[in-house]
């Protein structure tokens, strides 16, 4: 079999080494911030801030609402890496570039990745400000980040995708949401390439396919994170009703404003989840959650 054209593993290893040398210690938990959610990074204590442009091989975001910094710090006792900004297929990057940060996290020894994204709410009961925890996804980008020759140093050729979003972590998120009085709603994310928002007919199609929310990211990252052996938890903030649901136009400004408005709510859930994950044995579920049915 031919060698990969670009040695992704070598590049990711170099990026990871640069980060390791810039911080006192590397935590095993990482958080990726979606559109409008930059301010969540302000809650990170003792943060070392590394601009993406300083990290070898790292791309630089081109979209408003994605700051382009990697932070290493803590939320109370929970150490974490925060990626303040992500890359999208519609920016013109191949998916291997879009998902490069996941490879760097893999080389940093990260065990769990929490992805966040702004989304349009398809399901009739979803409203802007609702917090959805992904139970599954539909990859409708028309491409896959693992396309091409497989580098076995990075993962297996045919990774299983039965449980992309860890059932155990989803239950933790639901449980911590419940403790805070926040409804963390299970849902399926449909990923389209963008950058145009969907038409009402496309939204009806996505609804028929079983999607609850729609966005333009997250799925390639989740696929690569699983390929790299990391556990994934993903939150979709509903920033707007999907096209045609209310009949009102959608704008990126509306998405960013809704993200900003929901930052305190998401911050509370993320803090509790991070503390649970940093506590050895902390993902243990209460009896109530253990009996939770298949809808998490
Ligand atoms: O990075 P995310 O998925 O949060 O950003 C969404 C999708 C587009 O980049 C943008 C559309 O407003 O928000
Ligand atoms: O309605 C949407 N569609 C696709 N991506 C999005 N990101 C935020 N809102 C949306």
From TrEMBL:
<dbReference type="GO" id="GO:0009116">
    <property type="term" value="P:nucleoside metabolic process"/>
</dbReference>
<feature type="binding site">
    <location>
        <position position="198"/>
    </location>
    <ligand>
        <name>a purine D-ribonucleoside</name>
    </ligand>
</feature>
<comment type="similarity">
    <text>Belongs to the PNP/MTAP phosphorylase family.</text>
</comment>
<keyword id="KW-0808">Transferase</keyword>
<comment type="function">
    <text>The purine nucleoside phosphorylases catalyze the phosphorolytic breakdown of the N-glycosidic bond in the beta-(deoxy)ribonucleoside molecules, with the formation of the corresponding free purine bases and pentose-1-phosphate.</text>
</comment>
<dbReference type="InterPro" id="IPR000845">
    <property type="entry name" value="Nucleoside_phosphorylase_d"/>
</dbReference>
<feature type="binding site">
    <location>
        <position position="66"/>
    </location>
    <ligand>
        <name>phosphate</name>
    </ligand>
</feature>
<dbReference type="InterPro" id="IPR035994">
    <property type="entry name" value="Nucleoside_phosphorylase_sf"/>
</dbReference>
<feature type="binding site">
    <location>
        <position position="118"/>
    </location>
    <ligand>
        <name>phosphate</name>
    </ligand>
</feature>
<dbReference type="InterPro" id="IPR011270">
    <property type="entry name" value="Pur_Nuc_Pase_Ino/Guo-sp"/>
</dbReference>
<feature type="domain" description="Nucleoside phosphorylase">
    <location>
        <begin position="29"/>
        <end position="273"/>
    </location>
</feature>
<dbReference type="GO" id="GO:0005737">
    <property type="term" value="C:cytoplasm"/>
</dbReference>
<protein>
    <recommendedName>
        <fullName>Purine nucleoside phosphorylase</fullName>
        <ecNumber>2.4.2.1</ecNumber>
    </recommendedName>
</protein>
<feature type="binding site">
    <location>
        <position position="240"/>
    </location>
    <ligand>
        <name>a purine D-ribonucleoside</name>
    </ligand>
</feature>
<feature type="binding site">
    <location>
        <begin position="86"/>
        <end position="88"/>
    </location>
    <ligand>
        <name>phosphate</name>
    </ligand>
</feature>
<dbReference type="Pfam" id="PF01048">
    <property type="entry name" value="PNP_UDP_1"/>
</dbReference>
<feature type="binding site">
    <location>
        <position position="217"/>
    </location>
    <ligand>
        <name>phosphate</name>
    </ligand>
</feature>
<feature type="binding site">
    <location>
        <position position="35"/>
    </location>
    <ligand>
        <name>phosphate</name>
    </ligand>
</feature>
<dbReference type="InterPro" id="IPR011268">
    <property type="entry name" value="Purine_phosphorylase"/>
</dbReference>
<dbReference type="GO" id="GO:0004731">
    <property type="term" value="F:purine-nucleoside phosphorylase activity"/>
</dbReference>
<comment type="pathway">
    <text>Purine metabolism; purine nucleoside salvage.</text>
</comment>
<keyword id="KW-0328">Glycosyltransferase</keyword>
